[in-house]
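Researcher: I need the complex structure. Ligand is iron/sulfur cluster. Inputs:
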Amino acid sequence: MSPMTLFEKLWSQHLVSDLGNGMGLIAIDRIFLHERTGSVALKSLREAGRSVLDPSRVFCTMDHIVDTVPERSDDTRMPGGKAFITETRAAAQAAGITLFDVRDPLQGIVHVISPELGIVLPGTTVVCPDSHTCTQGALGSFAWGIGSSEAEHALATGTLRVRKPKTMRVRFEGELPPGVTAKDLTLALIAEHGSVGGNGYAIEYAGEAVRALDIEARLTLCNMATEFSAVTGFIAPDGRTFEYLRGRHYAPQGSLWDQAVKDWRELISDDDAVFDREIVIDVTQLTPMVTWGTSPQHAVPIGARVPAQSDSGTSAEAYARALEYMGLQAGQSLLGLKIDAAFIGSCTNSRLSDLRRAAAVLRGKKVAAGVKAICVPGSMSVKRAAEAEGLDQVFRDAGFEWRASGCSMCFFAGGESFGLRERVVSSTNRNFESRQGPETRTHLASPETVAASALAGCIADPRELQN
Amino acid sequence: MDALTVLTTIAAPLIRANVDTDAIIPSREMKSVSKTGLSEGLFAGWRYLTMGERDANPEFILNQPAYAGARILLGGENFGCGSSREHAVWALHEYGFRAVIAPSFAPIFRSNCVRNGIAPVILAASDIARLAEQVAVDPSAYRVTVDLQQCEVRCADISVPFTMDSESREMLLEGLDAIDLSFKHRDRIDQFMREQRRVRPWLHELPSSPPKVDVTI
Ligand code: SF4
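Model: Output:
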């Protein structure tokens, strides 16, 4: 047999029918929904007189609209948000699917709880009407975001009609310098190759630096494949993956576990497999990254200045618009730029290891006066685990708000926001105009950079506090 | 879904890179669990000067009388990036758009278009710039044609071919429902699932209830 890439293996294991012209009917193993986009899929499925083919493999969570204040209920700060919650609950119950409800101790952001509960497994296909579903590729699955109509299709038929993507391998080679994280890897990739650099591709992240990442960091790396316009990103499962999954509730148990691991060990790209495109990045030269503009590709090393238009990889018009929106000028230093707020959370960087690293920066120190600082754990399980280690106290003592889990201020839904033209350093994934609030200015960075900046009151290099 | 064959209409240029789905329909405008009632919120952040009173921003292209009734949108690179929300496409459709012409589309947005009767047409940025220039002379005199049968975009002397994968094209041309199409493979799907259960049973056999966690919230 000719050598195959990991993606080709995942594809062929799920190909129900070749539809011709590069399209395949692909079997879907796991479907996740959330109250923002899943409710409308369930509702319109029902209105069309169709039902969910296999409810035992469909899950739903309340993460997007639900408040993240500790005493929360169905009422939300987002106007009209309650209807999304109550209608999702009703639709999920009627469909017989598993729901992690507002006050469920396992509630959390979909891409945080799916790995946490062992719902996503190596060699599975996972879809969710949410663009960051690619996060879950970190476990060696083919996981991607879809629209609500496609979600309906997957729910009804157990399949999706998928255009076979091209394959790309991105190899991060060398050993990561101290203070440089998976978040910086993904920002560096997008900065170098542009926000459409991955368009049309399924991307396998590989190389020495990726192998060395723990599973939570791999989830961060895969999370932003969508900001690279890729269909998805994923990583071949290895011993770390199996260790991470062993014993998780929805992972196979007993002899089934052994059988599964044996199968998962085959999920690697064969030695001579050919990719449509290959990118190699030497990580030994990387530093923490931060964005200056309104696209994730507007990322630079933290010590750098706002680039000139000719070095920005953006058209003159988009460049001018971005600078105006961000209130910046070419040549301005990013270090030392005064901030109004700091946010640690989102499906990119809100897992236990993220909170530990941020807490290590914050321990015994205080957030600068006038800076609003918020930490939102990615799931209630992360929150409890962090509290068991006393991390909540570290955050609180430093002056951070400590919230219940959810998407929270990763995106503005009409409720809470950071405010007009406020400057926020954020561990999230999108710095689009008004993403975090009307005219809010977002600078994307790693959790440790956010923590260091919160302390300094301006964009700061975490490495100086880590020494 | 309505079939779409040849569309000739006013085209509105909104040529900016990375127009994301939150710009197309801001989150705050998605007020109900529904596919309708969204066109008011289309491009709300740009279209209105004030969020509450909805004072029209006269500068914004769709507020200019010359572009009233536009059914084709000329866009920039990476159109529809960001969130997967299909509401962006529902809002465009409800407003009246039936085609978006751009140099590249975010993958989820593109597929959402096809499922809702909006043709996502890929043309080179230079061709789109030419179209926009022609249209700007007099939008109602220089209407743009998106011809899905010939796979061609035309406007005055300009005529540019485009390619679209045959599945998307057929779905648009015939107004087909993807679920109905896939159900034609029902026997094959059943057979596949049986085989999958045998070879990789863990894909199908899941605990029937979530884990018990002993904490009070
Ligand atoms: S945390 Fe942010 S990016 Fe992630 S799923 Fe929620 S809203 Fe989307």
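Model: Summary of the prediction. Residues A 63-64, 109, 130, 132, 346-347, 407, 410-411, 428-429 surround iron/sulfur cluster (CB under 6 Å).
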